[in-house]
């Protein structure tokens, strides 16, 4: 993120345009929206009738809505299609229509074809059995077309372009409502699940052998290092006591219950104990006299997250069987028992979920194959079996922890209970002992064969793309990653390039060289050779390599500056729509030709500060959001790589990534000499990281609470089903929780995240994360159990969403106001009682909240006004931040700053955790510092730095303009040490690559641009410094206190 060129003018001369011409309601950052929010329409089937002929690719029986009635005609009404809008699909004769394209290459057009044959996997239009939409006893998700939707390209009209023959072989298995609860049989066999490592299918694995992976020894799943044991029948939460010993009931903070307490349904939550809580807050002296601020603040005493993200421990201590916080974090693990309590907290109650977070070696998510037993789920709410279910009736029944229904234990899954009521096979059942588990999904969880991993590239080859070197770096990188693309030998690949025309490439394996076909009729896009544009990588490997080798030179003299991006996007859609997959777009210019062309906008300074300002941050043309909706419907995730030095309307382009679960990579003013390592690394990461395909995610929770808004890069497919055509470890999603009107009477609320996906090896899997949290009746407990990282993650997403409907200033004020209200409420709880009226007090758990709030307001999407960040940069940063996992986001908001010169002259290992406050006061003119926000490094050379250090690191370059100098390893100890430190930082989080910028003290505008504006504790421009911010908050907290 961020511009790499400080000399880039902030006020480029652009043609004056009318920026409000295309006002519309799409809000690119807004992903909440319940039933009929902005997300709903794109997923609506084309008509009520047609919806009956389409089956969601993930069995209706699989991710059924919790506590929701089966879809009936009413739910079909809910998913009524939008009125036919601008149609961008191919004409109905599209595939039969072959105008004479320019054919500079050897491409020979085949006779017209009417079907895509020859694809290894062809999703069929599926016709579910009658009665599919209403199985009375099994809640089913609304019947919504995804993956292989029928009449979708032209709204409301049968699409004749994609023949969908009803090949029996590919007909989906009928969602079998009974599968998960077969009748009890006489046999008490207890088949063992086979456990495999998650994410098989990468190049070094044999995909087909994975399913037969050796059964792991039961001992491989010890009960979490002895911290807890299997639940005893009478006290299923006994295990909690092993890791945490609560005090006597009255002195126990209400969030911590003994097992016995938790078993006793109906007891009143323990009273709050303010005495215990008093130890949990901190206070800060802000002037000797209340109301007097002149005395100032002891800046050194302000709290700073120099240790990075600190995850609250209480959650895991209370419930050792919970999934790891890397997968799920709650903004407070004290769930309020009433709406009024929740509203008094003022901070969002919700969760941040990173379903595929990377795990350290040894902590992989166990994989369970129930094989013929079927996956054990609650008959009513569809919760997956988990460590918090309890077994009764001699092991014949199990009680659902989310809805309390007593379910039959299928005969295949039966196990006797021991004397204490624990299943005798408990230690061999990860699903009953681990908070995270992955189930192999049987046939009823798919309506088409699992798709192969598919990578399609849409590449701008106009003059600037070639001249910047982007094309060359990209081609080389893709070629170097071919061995590591997931899913060998099923992986599919294809390419389209474009300038003012669109170029298709026949990659048939029998060819020596790819054949290029040029289509210049942009109004009537058709796909030549539909069978050979998307090929199996292993079969066509040599053709693909030949293409990538020749691509840069093919266009090296291209003077074409136009971009037929929209038509090319439609072409890519037509090629990919049968299978789905990942579409990687490399865009170097503003789309200028054909449908989806965009205008220069956003430089009208008069718009800023008015209520029209936010429109600049919205997609200009509804074409983009409509395309995104269709991509998602067809299981296509879009990643946008943007490179221009000029305005490219990232707001519009990025919405393609936003609504398809994708990602925006922004390299403003890309120059190969400067940015190639960054592009190489990030593209390689994108291509080779573990990816889950054609996924949907749902978060279930217990009665009385429900998730009502969702925030991140995705589309909602129904009220609570998140559609993710592709998802990986670098994506997180946030959701807000609402309480029902009635008081929560249970002691515990359970959450279960279920991600149903296709692995790169072609298995359907369900990753399930389960967690429990205590219900509290006391506000103090909510504060005590708060998680600042999760709160800030939710805050950031809410604030960014607000910038798409409000002024930047309003979004910032909203952040500030919520912090003020929360701390005011806290103050009201304790200040008078503890005679702390002249001090600012805050819970220990939220001590970094004000600083992160300040940092959020200074972040690229929210900072300042017109001149403080380029519009494209703001939008790119916003799209990026919407998807960031908690730790990554916190590091971006409050980056690392470390001093390294001392360690260069010493022998001991550098301690990379020695972070400094982000203020200019931390910088010594004799020092060498590294600033790392996870996206870039800034290496700052003090003016009085030892010449020895400068020379060792930069050689003769040390005297040059640092914009022309790059850091590379030289043959001396100091240089090796610095490079080692940088590499350590890079390795600690490989999701992005930090490009290294050198800055000399006083060298402007570089120093200001790269470092000073990012020292969030300092007052820069119109923004507050940390001390000043705390005074403002304190003043506001005291008002109406
Ligand atoms: Zn249930």
From TrEMBL:
Instruction: Specify whether Transport is a keyword of the entry.
Output: yes
Q: Which UniProt keywords apply?
A: Cytoplasm, Endoplasmic reticulum, ER-Golgi transport, Golgi apparatus, Membrane, Protein transport, Transport
Which stretches make up the Sec23/Sec24 trunk domain?
450-686
Q: Enumerate composition-biased segments (Polar residues).
A: 21-35, 47-57, 103-118, 153-162, 205-227, 252-261
Q: Where is the composition biased (Low complexity)?
A: 1-16
One GO biological process this protein is involved in is:
intracellular protein transport
Pfam name, any one: Sec23_BS
User: What ranges does the record give for the region Disordered, renumbered to this chain?
Assistant: 1-261
Do the record's keywords include tRNA processing? Answer: no
What are the residue boundaries of the Zinc finger Sec23/Sec24-type domain, all occurrences included?
375-413
Q: Where is the composition biased (Pro residues)?
A: 138-148
Annotated ranges, domain Sec23/Sec24 helical: 787-890
**Domain named Sec23/Sec24 beta-sandwich: residues:** 692-776
Q: Which GO terms describe its cellular component?
A: COPII vesicle coat; endoplasmic reticulum exit site; endoplasmic reticulum membrane; Golgi membrane
Alphabetized GO MF terms = SNARE binding; zinc ion binding
Where does this one sit in the cell?
A: Cytoplasm; Endoplasmic reticulum membrane; Golgi apparatus membrane
Q: Which domain of life is it from?
A: Eukaryota
Q: Where is the Gelsolin-like domain?
A: 914-967
According to its UniProt record, where is this protein mainly located? cytoplasm
Listed InterPro entries: ADF-H/Gelsolin-like_dom_sf, Beta-sandwich_Sec23_24, Gelsolin-like_dom, Gelsolin-like_dom_sf, Sec23/24_helical_dom, Sec23/24_helical_dom_sf, Sec23/24_trunk_dom, SEC23_SEC24_subfamily
Q: Which PANTHER family match?
A: SEC24-RELATED PROTEIN, SECRETORY 24AB, ISOFORM A
Q: What family does the Swiss-Prot or TrEMBL record give for this protein? A: Belongs to the SEC23/SEC24 family. SEC24 subfamily.
By what name is this protein known? Answer: Protein transport protein Sec24-like At3g07100
Source organism per entry reads Erythranthe guttata (Yellow monkey flower)
